[in-house]
Amino acid sequence: MTNGWTDIRNADVVLAMGGNPAENHPVGFRFVMEARRNRNAKLVCIDPRFTRTAAVADCFVQIRVGTDIAFLGGLIHYALSRNRVHDDYVRAFTNATFLLKESYAFDAEKGLFSGWNDESKSYTDTSSWGYELDERGFAKTDPAMQHPRSVFQVMKAFYARYTPDAVANICGCRAEDFLKAADLITSTHTRDRAGTIMYALGWTHHSHSVQLIHAAAMQQLLLGNIGRAGGGVNALRGHANIQGGTDCGVAYHNLPGYLPIPKADHESLDAFVAAVTPKPLSPTATNFWSNTDRFMVSQLKAYYGAHATRENGFGYRLHPRLPQAEAAGYENWSWAYMFDHMYHGRMEGFFSFGMNPVSNGPHSKKAVAALSKLKWLVVAENFEQETAAFWRDDIQALVDKKPEDVQTEVFLLPAANFAEKDGSFVNSARWIQWKWKAVDPPGEAKPDQEIIARIFLKVRELYEQEGGRRPDPIRHLNWWYTNPAQPSLDEVAKEINGWAIGDVRDAAGSVVVRAGQQLSRAADARADGSTLSGNWLYIGMYTDAGNLTQRRTAADPSGLGRHPEWAFSWPANRRILYNRCSADPEGRPWDPSRPAIAWSGSRWTGDVPDITADSPPSAGLGAFMMLPEGVARLFVPGQFVDGPWSEHYEPSESPVANPLHPTQSANPAVKPFRTEYDVLGTADEYPIVCTTYRLTEHFHYWTKNNPYSMQLQPEFFVEIPEQLAADKGIANGDRVRVSSARGFVEGRAMVTRRIKPMQVAGKTTYQVGFPIHWGFLGRGKQQGALANLVTPTIVDPNSFAPEYKGFLVKLEKL
Amino acid sequence: MTPYRFSERIMHAVAAVSFVYLLLTGLAFWTPALYWIATVLGGGFLTRAVHPWVGVVLAVAVTWMFVTWSGVMRITDEDRAWRRSMGHYIRNEDDRMPAVGRFNYGQKMLFWVMAGSTLALLVSGLVLWLPHYVPRSLAPLREIAILAHALAALLTIGAFIVHVYMGVAVVPGGLKAILHGGTTTDHAGARR
Amino acid sequence: MAATLNIVRVSASPPAAGIRSEPTIAKLVDTSTCIGCKACEVACQEWNDLPPETTVQMGTYQTMPDMTSNVWNLIRFSEHDTDDGFHWLMRKDQCMHCAEPGCLIACPAPGAIVQYANGIVDFHQDACIGCGYCMTGCPFNVPKFAEKTRRVYKCTMCVDRVAVGLQPACVKACPTSCLQFGTKDAMLQAANRRVEQLKENGFPQAAVYDPPGVGGTSVVTVLAFGDRPELYGLPASPVVPRAVLFWKGALKGIGNLAIAGGVLAAAVHFIRYGRKQKAP
């Protein structure tokens, strides 16, 4: 989230799209209700289904699964063509004024950007997706935004194709419904109104998911809603600590604090730093990533302690580096790729902590087949689940195998759950909140850190006894904890925040942090080895004042729900990211009743400013300190592999060819896998659009072990529009089968008016949907109803998130 | 006068005992002032549980009586003549009453009132017994049942008072006849 | 019993002992902000230690067709089409805690149903005889019979929590504050504010549901379609069934008089005419 849960109460318009917050984030949804009750805010819900969010929305539009970019493109066009844009904001805080290279082009007929290689079917040269630079290396600008190659003008032309009729034709909604929603949403372009977007997996589970978020960001920037109280683009995280997982580097391509992972050809620390540190594109850019070396060295000190010395590049060579791929680029070890590697026999073993790949990965059959190729599998879980039991006859039957065919040795380790151990959760609002153990874990269950520590200590012992091929990364790991077998999470939290190993001095040479003190500012991290910090982003959460994540002071001096002394919000306890944008170029809040920060004459006051605290507005320092431009990117140069603008591409399985450019229907940058399980169906055989989702009554594949959750939602079901059910002779409560090109799942029919038939490109199109949550193990009627038996293995080319949310099926009555 | 057969006397005893139990427990539920009866008879919960079963017993006994006596209980012209002279009967001027068969008009009326009321009590009682099986759409049925049960019960109580009073206090040998099988000298006036 | 002074009405009993003056409390159910998350359903069961029921999926989001002796509140889902669109209505069904409680009026067991000074109507199952008259007396079809214990159960408004200054478990669990708890005056005020807001936002027929037919209820419900409570599974103008009122009122008087009259008449007859003579 750019803002936070409690800030949503300051919104005038809440757009819930690509998420179903009432269903999946009911507790946070209270702030939407507060906004409605106290500000008469309007809730707009755009979704393929009439959801529980839609039930309390002021405006609902049903759209076809996977057409969100078309809808958002339509909003952008609506705002730009009807002058519903926050002009001063866009000029001051975005790259709308920047000039693009002459070589940049988009072929609207073909649906392709410049740089496309028709032979290799990929973008081989994306150098044209950039700015025209001046002699100093800064981007040229046109403050009037009139230059034909200014980002603003190019954007206007690019989105001119997304007319209300085009949107209606693609999304399967009525143009007048779109216009009604557009009018409400863009009403926040004025300085006295603010609008927020709440999204979740309904946006991220597509083959164009990153561009979808990009489109949302563009829309919010045009309306002047980023950085303001009641504004922002707010990702609703689906698990209690998934934000913390992302922050702390669980994704394969990041280290903690979003530092890029070192690559095989970054031979030394210096080479790595040189390769990944961006250069400023504007004289007023803070370009905070110029501190990459400080953060990386502090992190290496946390990993390798005394073994990280200036001489050995702070242990850089001990750190794993991402290997180069056989074809080009680097190996990909994101989830779906990992299972592809596993399927191809490139993995020996697999640790699964709090994960259930057979159930939650794309296409369960491939996961089962892949796990069968492992030598060993370790599952640490609260309950026995489908992955730990993937050898069972009913699960092996999915891939036409028997338990005796499985050679994998499986270890199921009982793990403590969230309430059975201390630790912290980082919520969607970036608040790092400590939590305390409520009860002891049952039986032999152990907290994760103890399981990991014990395995680590044993492995280290073996390396020390037997040597091995590359023992040093393990032997030299900084395992400094008082109780090595059960590291205290308090110590781990201290380490993640970090401390000064030696005296830390400023440019003038005076000591700013004494040796042994906890760090309290990211700016105090040093690249000379005098500081240690596991994650620079969390610096300030555990200072000499104590563990600030344990703070529970509800005081709210702003009156706007910022609660600055409740836990700790990364970065730097900032509650609203990009909050410089909440004030005009002179430092006056756009809306004095809802200030985020304001210039007092000598410093920025209010929230922790997202800008140098004493830099006067007259200095014109860029509002986006993390970006080399210093301003927000409407046009995104080079960062995404599928283009600098968000373009509507159909899901990889779609009932129609892309009405904008039929020859390039789906995302051109998508690279499908090639095993027998990675198959796609056609609209002829599988004419119905299908989506998957979650229910408020359940949590993932976990609560099927809870009798109360099973009471509330006992059984797998398929939501079917009334008209389609009538066509197929299906009555409410009948048993039905939904099949894709990959597999089928069976359950009860829920015949409903909540999903209506649509007219898409002149064709009547039906959508059905079903929840995940059921499987093979658990209470009640499980019946092997695994939703992911039918989902495709297609992934987004940027984030590698699977396209769970839109694919094709057929429907039969049983 | 035909004496009561043994089977008739058993039948009557079963009906009488079950009726008295039902009357007392019913009164306990009827008015809080008499709830102490339920307490004496084992407490409200037990009373509520037993009352419907005893109701079934009464219904069986009354059905038995009905099958046995309905023939002789038909109202005849003689009965109608008896009814016209009922004032004499009430004033104990039995010598001025017309002749009757085994049962006089009053007894026959008691029979029909009891038979009809028992049927009403049984049907309404079933609804009251198992109210949780009555679906919401049939909720008025429960309300009708409450009133029907109360009204039918009141009717039987009225009949019961007259019957017991007559049998015990007014008609010599009445009680003995139904207990031990002797004959009464009532039914009065001229016998055929 | 500690609560004696709070009891203002007891089933099948003389006037109760309660002399405390307490404000009437109420629970606000704002159906227009209910998201059907069912947190209240589970919170109720957990606080009251009620075991889960076995349910089946029959093509609806609703947990089960009706409340049971283990499920004292149930979100009812219904779908409604209007000219300006489709509506998915959700309402928390539970005991309404009527000021004129039909259950209490119908109950023949002294002490089985009580009404507290704060408006809570509570069942005391130890005194319950399982007759089910309360089920007939209730215009909202709330009390539920348990086969196992042969007694009747319903929402207690968490009387044990309220007595120590806590809000009911369902209100505590409600994430959107669609459920609120306070004095009835405060809840009516909040409800009316919300109704005004709904009227401004395209629901001119919005209304507060506090049916006078049962003397008002301690569950105050905000309905966007206030002119059609039946869309939410609520009776339009609930009253204690007339049959129950007649039965417990006029009929009881007439019946008692009739019985007494019958006995009296027999006595008078005996004194006046005495025993019949044996036939000669």
Name the descriptors.
heterotrimer, B: 192 residues, mainly alpha, Fumarate Reductase Cytochrome B subunit, 70% helix, C: 280 residues, alpha+beta, Alpha-Beta Plaits, 4-stranded mixed sheet, 3-stranded antiparallel sheet, 11 strands, 28% helix, elongated
Descriptive overview:
- In chain A, the strands form 12 sheets. In chain A, strands 27-29-28-33-26-32 form a 6-stranded mixed sheet.
- In chain A, helix 4 runs antiparallel to helix 7 (164-171).
- The relative contact order of chain A is 0.14.
- Helix content of chain A is 22%, strand content 15%.
- Chain B has one domain (6-180): Up-down Bundle (Fumarate Reductase Cytochrome B subunit), CATH 1.20.950.20.
- Chain B is 70% helix and 0% strand.
- In chain B, helix 1 (6-30) runs antiparallel to helix 3.
- The longest helix of chain B has 32 residues, at 139-170.
- Chain C has 280 residues and is an alpha+beta fold.
- Chain C has one domain (2-240): 2-Layer Sandwich (Alpha-Beta Plaits), CATH 3.30.70.20.
- A 4-stranded mixed sheet of chain C has the order 9-2-11-10. Chain C has a 3-stranded antiparallel sheet with strand order 1-5-6, with no helix packed on it.
- Chain A binds chain C through residues 22-23, 26-27, 29-30, 33-34, 36-37, 40, 50, 52-56, 58, 60, 696-697, 707-708, 710-717, 732-733, 747-754, 780, and chain C through 32-39, 41-42, 45-46, 52-60, 63, 79, 81, 85-90, 175-178, 194, 197, 200-202.
The DSSP helix count of chain C reads 7
Segments of chain C where pLDDT lies below 50 for 5+ residues? none
CATH topology tier name of chain C: Alpha-Beta Plaits
Determine and state the CATH class of chain C.
Alpha Beta
User: Which chains make the largest contact?
Assistant: B-C, 42 and 43 residues
- Total beta strands of chain B: 0
Distance between the termini of chain B: 10 Å
Gist?
The complex is a heterotrimer of chains A (814), B (192) and C (280). Chain A has 814 residues and is of the alpha/beta class.
